[in-house]
Amino acid sequence: MTHAVLLSPHARAAFRSIDAGAARALPGVIAILTAEELAADGMPDLPGGVDLTRPDGSKTPKTNRPLLARG
Question: Structure pTM?
Answer without folding.
Answer: 0.52
